[in-house]
Amino acid sequence: QVQPVESGGGLVQAGGSLRLSCAASGIIVSLNDMGWYRQAPGKQRDLVARITTGGSTNYADSVKGRFTISRDNAKNTVYLQMNSLKPDDTAVYYCNIRKRSPGSPRYDYWGQGTQVTVSS
Predict the structure, then answer these.
(1) 103: pLDDT confidence band, cut at 50, 70 and 90?
(2) Per-residue pLDDT band at 101 (split at 50, 70, 90)
(3) Are the CB atoms for 38 and 85 separated by under 8 Å?
(4) How far apart are CA 69 and CA 32, in angstroms?
(5) HSE-CB for 107 with a 13 A CA cutoff
């Protein structure tokens, strides 16, 4: 059973920090591409950060220098450290597992999301 479960969302003031966690079951995070996406009202779901099987990372321009994606292989968990938060960061944040299994098509798994609200 492949399932990502997000946690760590909440309310924070602008300039503050928050760390989101994505606990994954059914897969090994280091063997799959993992990502964080967010969706604000009236906007599409956009990539925030991703970490590949090789450990490389990339970020949306809007969060570069402020957000850091990482993983703890021992805990099979992916994190999104968010610093210097801005009101525009307010959104529902989703964890994505891009499962990559030899001999089978790529498949995306999504969590239920966790709300991040940044107040002015």
Answers:
(1) confident
(2) confident
(3) no
(4) 14
(5) 9
